[in-house]
Amino acid sequence: MSYARVFAVGLLGVTGHIVEVEADLSQGLPVVTLTGLPDTALHEARDRVRAAVVNSGQSWPNRRITVNLLPAALPKHGSGFDLAIATALLAGAGELPVEALDKVVVLGELGLDGQVRAVRGVLPMVAAAVRAGLTEVIVPLANAREAAVVPGVTVRAVDSLRRLIAYVRGQDELLEPPPHEPGPPPAGPDLADVAGQEMGRYGLEVAAAGGHHLAMFGAPGAGKTMLAERLPSILPELDDEAALEVTALQSIAGVLPPDGQLLRRPPYQAPHHTASAAAIVGGGSGLARPGAMSLAHRGVLFLDEAAEFLSATLQALRQPLETGRVRLARSQGTTEFPAQVQLVLASNPCPCASPAGDQHCTCPRVVRRRYLAKLSGPLLDRIDIRLTLAPLTAAQLTVSSAPSPSSAEVGARVAAARAAAGARWAADGWRVNAGVPGQVLRRPPWRLPASDTAVLRESLDKGLLSARGYDRVLRLAWTIADLDGRTRPTRAEVNEAIQLRMGDRNG
Length: 507
Ligand SMILES: [Zn+2]
Prior knowledge:
The protein is an alpha/beta fold. The protein is about 35% helix and about 15% strand. Among the domains are: about 5-170, Ribosomal Protein S5, domain 2; about 215-385, 3-Layer(aba) Sandwich (Rossmann fold), CATH 3.40.50.300.
């Protein structure tokens, strides 16, 4: 036997594709040829595999070796094919019984010493294997728990090529994935910790219930960050599909915690304002890494001091916010990652950022206006809720005796409101009010009576509100009605929505 085939998986964005690793050994000059669009890392694989095979006590077959990765058209990145290449090669050389690997997917990077190293993206790779009907996988020990998260798969773990060889020869067992210790996920920060800021907490609740983007303006210390980091705590848990998707993205980014649990809480990402556009949307050579926007997929992306971000970075958010996907141009084509985020912006009202608020601001008016103008083009247009938070006074901190409602209490109201909205829009495919086109809300059967929208129309006529802003108020009014348990918004909900929309005194 001088031919063997082993399965591996290549990733395109977050989607895995089965790759057949073929090895053919023939008489001729002892050279190794790799074909099938390999990138630089794959060429390096040739050297790693040779050293690993020799250092695992095997003799290197002194024949002409061709390794081919199929399908050829699929771009293949990274070092995760090493183990499959070594296995196919040894099987082709007659050192391993090929039949034992007939329906097995083999993933892992090899060290020169023959140790098997972890690779990024094992979770989506294993998911792809299962989808293709290959339900047995051999993965690096460090990735074993992560692989076992995928339903319907048998995971075997290896720490070295030597162990894999012994297993395939029937001389040794592979390792079982370390047992799961599914404790409760660590409790995140709770809304009960936020004193005062009724408007801020309410705005957050409405944002969560309707899926609305949110902007908060206010002096340092007003609690903008405290509120933003508590938004995930009142959002519903991720369903199975979303949880797999979110966990897969963390796996590809290499930031998945080693306990190998499916992530059920909506993620939270808060990139610093000095972060590059690539850090936010993703990039890197070889196997592209998702950026903060994709790591926040199905969760919250918080931009603190938003006006301090580079304009180019803010511009880079625009397309993903529109489409829910990040597209990265690569030398071998385009990589896409999902990036449906709920955006939360916070900003000081002006560059001087006086902690005492507006009274002590020393900035000229034109500077104040210019400061926030940077946000208005790419981002503020898409944001439904704009709040101005006043700094907490000592009186508010001490007098406020009743504790703030907890995240669990608020989260229950959010869940009920989302259920109402979900039922209303189910036939049209929208999950939350923020996704409903404005024209739908302006037409029967959802159009509100003129008597209820009087103030809204007046604001539009006076130029206080744009046509887009008008639609945003309508969406907010529906969310407020959902939270109030009403089947339709009335004048009261519309007026409250105007407040949430125009709470930004800076425009
Ligand atoms: Zn100022």
